[in-house]
């Protein structure tokens, strides 16, 4: 009787641990981290803040069962970058200074705000190559030092010629030519531009637009001799963006205190 009853019990009633485990696995999905099921985690994707379209999971977006790269565009944006870091400089002249640019190529989140930024550090008496903004207006804010600026509109009229000090702001419209020269204490400033991929065109230097024009064309366009046109075409061709002063520091120190040099006197 004891053996038959034992067999009868084992035949009709399975072990409690095994039956409960099988019943749990069959009726309820497994829970992953944070109380989510594996199916919910696969739909949530690798980034918690990024959700696919309704009825679609990251696994279904790729033939290989993974995500397809969209999460890099929407969820992997850097929200901050140190534009003051000298190692990020796009242009460096050991005798003149540095220029660092941020646009949508180097800082993709700027696509959202549709703006870009340029940070400039000029050494003593250094000059920014004459240029104009091709596709944006710019707002220039002085951080440190002093800088002399000349701005000419698209009709050739001088609309600004003065000194900027720390804390001052200057708006430079699109297509207005601007020339900047740091004073004896150097200068630091930042420009915000109304285009995520702002571009400038330089008039002098290695990447000058005049360097691509024949000498005869320059001579006829400006009404100057071929010798003057050649000098205009090849001036400062060894430097890019930011120019070092050509005069010795002793010459600059000979000017009386309070009298600053305008940039146009130092371009030749």
Automatic annotation (TrEMBL):
SUPFAM superfamilies: RmlC-like cupins. Transmembrane segments: none annotated. InterPro entries: 11S_seedstore_pln, Cupin_1, RmlC-like_jellyroll, RmlC_Cupin_sf, Seed_Storage-Functional. Residues 81-230 form the Cupin type-1 domain. Belongs to the 11S seed storage protein (globulins) family. Hexamer; each subunit is composed of an acidic and a basic chain derived from a single precursor and linked by a disulfide bond. This is Cupin type-1 domain-containing protein.
